[in-house]
Design goal:
The structure is a single chain. The protein is an all-alpha fold. It is about 85% helix and about 0% strand. The longest helix is centred in the middle third of the chain and has 38 residues.
Length: about 525
């Protein structure tokens, strides 16, 4: 990856770390305020509505289609046309966000029945009330979606870094100071305020990056072509979100606290995923589009090999070591005992989901690379196939494995999606992409296994010496052993010059040099 791409990835990774750490704080605050015994289930179920909106509008679809277009128009000197297209997108998606907000208000009761059929009638009414409160958040998220296109096309990611932090802080503060008096309504209001503030930040960043709205051009062929490309992408995402929502509904039938356990398991996995794959994917999209225009498929192959290799190299040890040693540290941080009913559910799902990290990371980066190549059909088709497989396999897996079956279905579907995407990407870049990725994976897996062996040996040795039942002490032992295993993985990778590790290790060395 280029120096600018690495710096952008580092900025986004640091911001993602801060945001996800605040996300952990948000989870802890919510559990502390409402408990993990089922009282939090209505808020988490209602939150699926703004989450679906975010995924459909703000979390990539617009950027994936419009960033390459804006980059191309500006590189050709057609600044006015780029601005008119952006103005048209603001108008279209502003109206769309307003329609979604009104629909969420009017249909809240029916949505509650679909979101959480397994909870009590009183809790479903609470879901409906919270859904109505959360409806205005779609306006803020719609603004974020459009404004982020311009900033990403200019390779400026400060707003994308700050916005999620502000969003999480809003939920945390509203919950801390309002939960006792207003209950889950306080958390919902914090969500709405956070989304609107994120929108304000996104608009300010776009203006700093030079965006000035012009007269919309709704009949521009490039605009119509871009909207046509968005239809399959958003349709595919809608299917994905329907399937993920059905998993929440299925979880609601597994007892009180099951929605909390499933939502938290998914949220915890997002911390390393967003830091690594999300950051690389966001930074690599405009680079891939530019390199393809300038260097052709050979340049895109180089970028693809580097980006996918870095994602796999960074996520694999987290998956391998985390699946074995994360239970006690995470339980301590969240305040959920691994031996409690909700804790048992949470950690049975989390262990399996952690194994999907390298798969999801490769999928996320490969998706953005396909977008950079102007291909939306490949990612859409792959995600639809994966979603259908998850939907078809979830109930049988749950019948066989209980709560862990939800995670098993996700792991199965994600694996198939990743394979389909890599095959699609190979058609764009040529070369021996799959063979090279398998070599990277094999070396990283062997190195991660060595780190895991060291971590497990350290954990077992210290635990035998201490022989304590204290969760805090066991968490400290496991976290220290995991850190030692990850450090060993890093040092061994540097020594062996593991494929995919060069750019991340170089960034770490530069950061260490500045600290010294």
């Amino acid at each position: 990856m280029s120096g600018q791409t690495v710096r952008n990835s580092a900025l986004l990774s640091a911001a993602a770390l801060a945001s996800r750490l605040l996300g952990w704080v948000r989870l802890i605050v919510l559990v502390t305020a409402f408990g993990a015994d089922g009282r939090l289930d209505p808020y988490l179920a209602a939150f699926k509505i703004p989450d679906i909106i975010y995924q459909l509008i703000a979390a990539g679809p617009l950027s994936s289609v419009l960033v390459p277009l804006v980059v191309r128009l500006r590189s050709e000197g057609d600044e006015l046309r780029a601005r008119r297209i952006m103005s048209s997108i603001f108008l279209i998606f502003g109206v769309l966000a307003l329609v979604i907000a009104v629909a969420a208000l009017l249909l809240a009761g029916g949505l509650a029945e679909l979101l959480a059929p397994g909870i009590s009638a009183a809790q479903r009414e609470e879901v409906a009330q919270l859904s109505r409160i959360l409806a205005p958040s779609s306006l803020g998220l719609g603004i974020v979606a459009v404004a982020s296109v311009w900033t990403a096309a200019n390779e400026r990611f400060l707003a994308a870094s700050i916005g999620p932090i502000v969003y999480n802080l809003s939920v945390i503060l509203f919950t801390l100071f309002g939960a006792e008096q207003f209950g889950t309504v306080a958390a919902a209001l914090g969500t709405v305020v956070g989304a609107l503030l994120y929108g304000v930040i996104a608009i300010a960043a776009a203006r700093v990056a030079g965006l000035r709205l012009a007269r919309p051009s709704l009949r521009d062929p490039l605009l119509l072509g871009s909207l046509g490309s968005l239809v399959p992408r958003m349709s595919g995402l809608l299917i994905v979100q329907i399937v993920l929502t059905s998993l929440v509904a299925l979880a609601s039938t597994l007892g009180p606290g099951s929605i909390t356990a499933w939502t938290y398991a998914l949220s915890l996995v997002q911390l390393p995923l967003a830091m690594v794959a999300g950051s690389i994917g966001t930074a690599i999209l405009p680079v891939a589009a530019r390199v393809l225009n300038v260097e052709g498929p050979a340049g895109l192959l180089r970028v693809t090999r580097s980006a996918l290799g870095a994602a796999i190299w960074m996520l694999l040890p987290v998956a391998v070591i985390g699946a074995a040693l994360a239970t006690n540290p995470v339980g301590l941080v969240l305040g959920i005992s691994p031996g409690s009913p909700v804790g048992a559910l949470l950690f049975s799902g989390l262990s399996l989901l952690l194994f999907s990290l390298p798969i999801q990371g490769a999928t996320s980066v490969a998706t953005r690379l396909c977008y950079g190549a102007g291909d939306t059909r490949g990612p859409v088709g792959s995600s639809v196939v994966a979603s259908l497989l998850i939907a078809l396999s979830a109930a049988p897996f749950v019948a066989a494995f209980g709560f862990a079956g939800l995670a098993a279905a996700v792991l199965f579907g994600e694996g198939v999606e990743c394979l389909l995407l890599l095959l699609r990407l190979r058609s764009h870049v040529g070369g021996h992409l799959l063979r090279e990725l398998m070599r990277m994976l094999a070396m990283s897996l062997a190195t991660a296994a060595s780190g895991l062996a060291l971590a497990l040996a350290l954990s077992a040795a210290v635990s035998a010496l201490v022989a304590s039942e204290s969760l805090a002490l066991r968490a400290l032992i496991d976290a220290s052993a995991a850190a030692a295993g990850l450090l060993f993985y890093l040092l061994l990778s540097a020594r062996l010059k593991a494929p995919g590790s060069d750019a991340p290790i170089a960034t770490l060395r530069r950061a260490w040099g500045r600290i010294r």
